[in-house]
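Example record for the data management plan.
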Amino acid sequence: MWIFSESFLSIVADKFDPDVLVVRARVEGDIERYFPNAAVLESAGSDYRYRASIPRKDVIITVARMIFDIDYPNYKSSLSDHRRSPWYMTVWDSMWRMQEALR
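Corresponding structural encoding:
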């Protein structure tokens, strides 16, 4: 699952423990923004530079809180870190083109 928020997170199942999810990020600090107690590992050679194994229940609670806290009518305009805007806009554009192509 990809989540775009004030952070970009990729969340996948842990290969060995069904009660754990691996939260991955490309930007330092993105995981800690939502999981401040996470033991984040940095691996420069992997597809996602930062990752943390987090109990599934903690991820569920955090993602539910993210949804509960939505208070904006336009996501792109809500970003506080405007350096992300061009990157997020590229994703928006790609998904718009997919929408048009797959109708």
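Summary line stored alongside the record: The CA atoms of residues 40 and 52 lie 5 Å apart.
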